Amino acid sequence: MTAAVTLDTPLATRRRRGGWLGKVPYVVIGLYVLVGLVGPLLLDYDPVHTPLEDRLLSPGSTTADGGTAWLGTDDLGRDVLAQIVYGARTSVLIGVATVGVASVVGLLLGAVAGYARGWLDAVLARIFDVLLAFPAILLAIVIAGAFQRSVLLVVVALSATAWISFARVTRSVALSLRERAWVDAARVLGVPQRSILWRHILPFTAGPIVALATLEFALVVLAEAGLSFLGIGLPSSTVSWGQTIANGKAYLETAWWISTLPGIALSLLIINVGILGDQLTARYGRGRRDA
Amino acid sequence: MTRFRGRRLATTVAAAAALLLAACSTTSGGDDTADAGDSGEATGGDIVAAGTYPIESLDPHGAQGASTGTQFAGQAIFSRLVRPSADGSLVGDLAAEWTANADVTQWTFTLRDDATFSDGEPVTAEDVVASFDRMIALDGPNAGNFPEYTMTSASDTEVTITSPVPDAAVPGKLLIFYVIPAGVAPDDTAFFTAPVGSGPFTVGAFTPGDSLELAPNESYWGDVPQVDTVTVRNIPELSARLTALRTGEVDVVWGIPDDQLGALQGEDTLTVETVQSTAVYTMWFNSSIPALTTPEVRRALWQAVDFETIISTLYPETGELADAPVSPLVLGHSPQEPVGFDPEAAQAALTAAGFDFSQTLRLQFANAEFRPFIQAVVSDLAEIGVTVEPLEKEQAVFTEDLLALNWDVNFQQLATPTYDAASNLGRLYTCAAGRNGYCNPELDALLAAASATSDEAERTDLYGQASEIIWRDAVGMYPMAVSLAYAWNSDLDGFTPDPSGLPDFSKVTVSGS
């Protein structure tokens, strides 16, 4: 390869390298969403029903009622495959809800801080910094542990710290955007502050926020599994990967499938969302636009 | 700039994952630090045990006095007036003999004269009375067994305990009363860093919540233990505990769940045994709520659960269908007619009694180890259309709600550490106690009568009649009598599994090491 060629085709090589490998995360995440949406319609699962005669069956065994436990059963005879499918729905739901709440809160506060500057920015930015100094998972454990277990509580506990990174990213983007020519122009034309923020600043934060949201999504799913594993997350009537993994902890030697299979499902999702997040950051992340 | 942000976020992901893992493993964090040090190298006679509960305090009279860990330590370091024998009957420890007066309000204990503390001083009646007063002054959980009781000494070898009402269960209650030297102030915590006791062992080293190292008490008045040291370590994580047993890092483990027993039974170097305990799975109904007021409803709910199948699948080794509200080891045990599994009859009885199937019953319990059992019960009740919501509570919250009757069904593994039905039936089922909303004057009269005689046969008969009422009216469900599973290194000779989970190491020797 000559120097001239490499200089001419950076865009092309990047796209080709992305190629089909780059699409893997989209496909995998799409599969999870599909399983979360459609799976529960096809598979029947009742966490309350415990067919004890089927307990600790290995993957592929036949259950007492003639069905097949493709991924085995847990210590109360409940199907592991169904738990993974229902758990996917829980995880995706909580991930989306938490990231939704966190990004809206973060976006608003960050944009206001960055655009307003002055004392308001100083106060808000210091609040972000102070909260950032808190270990996120510990704060979530404290909040989740203090109240009755519920899905809403988990979303609140995880959002409590997740919004800060959104706020910081939005603030830094807004800080530079407010000096751009079109914002100046709008200001000179007498467009109200609120409209400038809404029409001329916020739309441009979308790229970095989407990239950040995917990474946060991975963190949230992991944190939810962690909380449920510790027994302070979702109520036991809600199926969650964290709970299934925790249930199988005592059976790692004799019935490895209870913890291992949901663990693999969790890791696959986290890794793929992480890769997707990196790709999005590379494409839309802050600074790329100006280059 | 972009790359920097991406990488930093990736680092955040990794850091959060690491934190999460750290958070998940905190329960087993003590493993490495609690390594038994040099105990494996001495010339035989070192035992390392890993129990089920941590030892937080050595003060047997204090706030931790009723906890299993402190009881275990107390039994090794101190002496009691009486102690239980293998079949649950009482034998003398410091006391040589004891008698009650005619109306059972006074018990007189004659002390043996050869007992000494580890510092060589003799154990006198003065020490016993001072210890009793200290326990009452500290007002810990054990003091609750002796409301307005007093102890006096008539001579150096005789103490008398006086109760305000007839109480035949005094000797049993004294099983959790330990004697320390007179002159230790209630708030003297320094004493317990190197306590002086009259038990078979003295304290070598103690880290609260982590490990306790015991050395033989050379001036013990009984047979001085043969071993060099006994170290009790706290390994909260079950799998870590069992791995330590298999690798030989610890010699004795108890409280092993059924599903783990199979793997241990296959090991040549281990002896696995189960022993009947004093505990019974007790599931009280809250008789004070409208839905559960009638005995027919409570009994129907009991009938609706297939406890036989649940026990044979979940607890094939350590559980058997209970036949009375108290364990067979307990004085006052009297077998009752089994309540069979009959969901159709149960449903019919509930319908006939006008039971509201749309309500949700709250079933509270406190420990994750019972979750599978609770879920299986909930599953069976759901089959006949009764909705039960399992509520797993933190221990302190559980106790508070238990006393406040803030539950519809309550699950407890109820042990009777005094081996006497008085502290179970007699204490918990009276109208005055108000522990489960059930009140029956006839039952109260029987329990009072059982408390007012020291004749064991008569007491057993009276508690048998009381049990019949409790069983018939289904004050609670009594599904399972619990056994404790022990596994120990076959090198240990003379190890006897203890029904209360408080094994005695004073007679154990180590061979072949």
Record the SSE blueprint.
The complex is a heterodimer of chains A (291) and B (513).
Chain A: H1 3-8, H2 10-42, E1 61-62, E2 68-69, H3 80-116, H4 118-132, H5 136-146, H6 151-177, H7 181-188, H8 193-201, H9 206-229, H10 241-247, H11 257-284
Antiparallel strand pairs in A: 1-2
Chain B: H1 2-24, H2 30-33, E1 46-50, H3 68-77, E2 79-80, E3 82-84, E4 90-92, E5 95-100, E6 106-111, H4 125-138, E7 150-155, E8 158-162, H5 170-173, E9 178-179, E10 201-207, E11 211-216, E12 229-233, H6 238-247, E13 252-254, H7 258-265, E14 270-285, H8 295-303, H9 307-314, E15 319-321, H10 343-352, E16 360-365, H11 371-383, E17 387-392, H12 395-403, E18 409-414, H13 425-428, H14 441-451, H15 456-472, E19 476-489, E20 492-493, E21 509-510
Parallel strand pairs in B: 1-12, 1-13, 16-17, 16-18
Antiparallel strand pairs in B: 2-9, 3-4, 5-6, 6-8, 7-8, 10-11, 11-12, 13-19, 14-18, 14-19, 15-19, 20-21
Helix pairs in contact in B: 8-10, 9-11, 14-15
What does this structure look like?
- The complex is a heterodimer of chains A (291) and B (513).
- Chain A contains 11 helices and 2 strands; from the N terminus they run ααββααααααααα.
- By secondary structure, chain A is mostly helical.
- Chain A has a two-stranded antiparallel ribbon with strand order 1-2.
- In chain A, a hairpin with a 5-residue loop joins β1 and β2 (68-69).
- Chain A is elongated and about 75 Å long.
- In chain A, 45% of the residues are buried.
- Chain B is an alpha+beta fold and 513 residues long.
- Classes of the chains: A mainly alpha (291), B alpha+beta (513).
